[in-house]
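Design job #97: recover the sequence.
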């Protein structure tokens, strides 16, 4: 019995810490308040929260929107790195696997920045070194003069084969969309394999990942509908969720919205998601669809976490909610900087 207690104590500790951290995230009411504030007022408010250290440290170097952008990125990266340090055993392996998605986001941010002629310093402001590529590696990529050299510098990394294979098409088309899709397909295949590898707790990790895949595939289907994309959509499908590649392609070929919703609901099991899909029989903007799907995903993840309080679930819920807090604060700051009306900014918030 003592041995069991000793094994479980670190797990109980880290899951409790995640709940404490989650309780400190900004509530919906704070975002509503910020919608009525100016950018300097928002900066002051953020400086009184968990972002105080970063705001104070960076205030002498950056101002306005740049100060908020860099402070948010620094805080998120430091928080994610801290969580990896305190997470024990199998939970650490699953956490690190999940956070490898940031490698994709960071590399694509650098590549897109280079394509658009953005200065290295501006690109660096929004990088979040939370995956296997640390700040030193990313710093070495930023000064490279061409996309080819950036990709060559990643030789040996798990992403390199996809980057090298997809770059000719990206160069010809001027778009990194297919490359991005292929990188995420590889990412999900790898972390599904880790969850299925017989490690204790892998089944709970898989539940989380499969929900993530379902939401991503459904978002893609709605995006394809909005773009009236009629070619074979199979390449856009991510394997591992409720929708097979055949289901996905067939759904993409349905023109009638009601029939599309009926067929999609027949493949989905989560009650929250079924309820949301029913509400989407009337046409919505793609932005509205994506935000609402994200909200349902977070709510479903929260329910999974409550059912399994000492597992990978509380950690992953916090990682996602923290990410969306940063996303919301960034959307608020950018919206204010662009002088968008408050009601328009509110549409982008995941609360």
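Job complete. Output follows.
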């Amino acid at each position: 019995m003592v041995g069991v207690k000793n094994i479980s104590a670190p797990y109980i500790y880290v899951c409790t810490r995640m709940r404490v951290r989650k309780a400190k995230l900004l509530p919906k009411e704070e975002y509503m308040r910020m919608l009525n504030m100016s950018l300097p007022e928002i900066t002051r408010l953020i400086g009184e929260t968990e972002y105080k250290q970063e705001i104070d440290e960076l205030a002498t170097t950056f101002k306005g929107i740049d100060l908020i952008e860099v402070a948010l990125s620094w805080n998120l990266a430091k928080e994610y790195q801290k969580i990896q340090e305190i997470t024990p055993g199998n939970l650490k392996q699953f956490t690190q696997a999940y956070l490898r998605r940031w490698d994709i986001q960071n590399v694509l941010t650098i590549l897109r920045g280079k394509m658009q002629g953005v200065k290295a310093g501006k690109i660096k402001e929004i990088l979040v070194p939370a995956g296997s590529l640390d700040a030193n590696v990313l710093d070495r990529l930023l000064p490279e003069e061409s996309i080819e050299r950036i990709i060559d510098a990643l030789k040996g990394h798990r992403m390199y084969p996809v980057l090298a294979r997809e770059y000719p098409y990206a160069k010809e088309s001027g778009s990194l969309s297919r490359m991005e899709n292929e990188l995420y397909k590889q990412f999900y295949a790898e972390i599904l394999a880790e969850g299925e590898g017989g490690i204790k707790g892998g089944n709970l990790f898989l539940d989380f990942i499969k929900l993530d895949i379902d939401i991503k595939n459904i978002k893609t289907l709605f995006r394809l509908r909005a773009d009236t994309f009629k070619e074979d959509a199979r390449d856009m499908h991510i394997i591992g969720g409720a929708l097979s590649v055949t289901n996905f392609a067939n759904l993409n070929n349905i023109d009638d919205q009601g029939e599309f919703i009926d067929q999609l609901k027949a493949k989905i099991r989560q009650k929250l998601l079924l309820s949301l899909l029913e509400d989407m029989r009337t046409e919505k903007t793609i932005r509205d669809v994506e935000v609402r799907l994200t909200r349902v995903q977070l709510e479903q993840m929260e329910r999974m976490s409550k059912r399994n309080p000492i597992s990978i679930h509380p950690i992953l819920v916090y990682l996602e909610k923290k990410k969306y807090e940063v996303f919301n604060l960034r959307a608020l700051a950018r919206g204010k900087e662009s002088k968008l009306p408050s009601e328009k900014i509110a549409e982008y918030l995941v609360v």
